């Protein structure tokens, strides 16, 4: 093996530690034909000669004790070791709460921000309820690019510092744009990010907006909101049709809203369809 080991893949460009280990194995094999799963296990102190292979294939997880052994066998620096540990926590999280905590630690890494900037920023966009709200607020005819003014317009109000960070992220993502005159407007970006981050962020978005909807019952007058619901019994074969109708309804709402040239407020429209009972044939 070369002393500097420049052949090693950059761990800070990964969100899946198994993918990193797979790429590491291929790179190590190319660097040294004697490298093998057995060779790695011996270096890491594992009794199973195929432990690395099983982990890469998702058939085994890495324990807290094993993380240290992997770090030693991979010859990770202290910073790389911390990042690897956070990647393991992110990928093996038992629930979305722990997954969010782990991703926050992953995204806090300076080198990760440099390598995977869009992942961290997209996560922020959907995981902070006011990011989409500020983007839409830009379309208001009275919009003022002043963090204090924007912060006070939101329900509930937030800190101006959070607004400043929000505007910076929206600009970098292309979700808002600055024209030649210096005025902000909504942009139409094409954002590509890892499915793990996207799924986690979208789930965060829906949870936050559902909470905002619940809070609005107490904080917003009935004249300025519409919250209704119905409970129905349906056949499984009807579900695709209902989802299609909901999709068409949302498209119609968007089309109508886009025709407004002068807007005064930002609204959230939530539509939910979910079972309240076990579904026949799917009981566990």
Describe this structure in words.
Helix 4 (64-74) packs across helix 5 and helix 5 runs antiparallel to helix 6 (96-107). The chain has helices at residues 17-31, 37-44, 51-56, 64-74, 78-91, 96-107, 110-115, 117-127, 130-137, 147-153, 160-173, 195-219, 239-258, and strands at 176-178, 184-186. Strand 1 and strand 2 (184-186) form a beta hairpin. The protein contains 13 helices and two strands; from the N terminus they run H-H-H-H-H-H-H-H-H-H-H-E-E-H-H. The protein has a two-stranded antiparallel ribbon. 55% of the residues lie in helices and 2% in strands. The longest helix is centred in the last third of the chain and has 25 residues, at 195-219. By secondary structure, the chain is mainly alpha-helical. The protein is globular.
Strand order of the largest sheet: 1-2
Mean pLDDT: 93
Assembly status: single chain
- Write down how many β-strands occur, each being a DSSP E stretch of 2 or more residues: 2
Helix content: 55-70%
Broad structural category: mainly alpha
Main beta sheet strand tally, sense and closure? 2 strands, antiparallel
Succession of helices and strands: HHHHHHHHHHHEEHH
The global form is globular
Uncertain segments of ≥5 residues (pLDDT<50)? none
Total of helices: 13
**Strand percent estimate:** under 5%
First-to-last CA distance: 51 Å
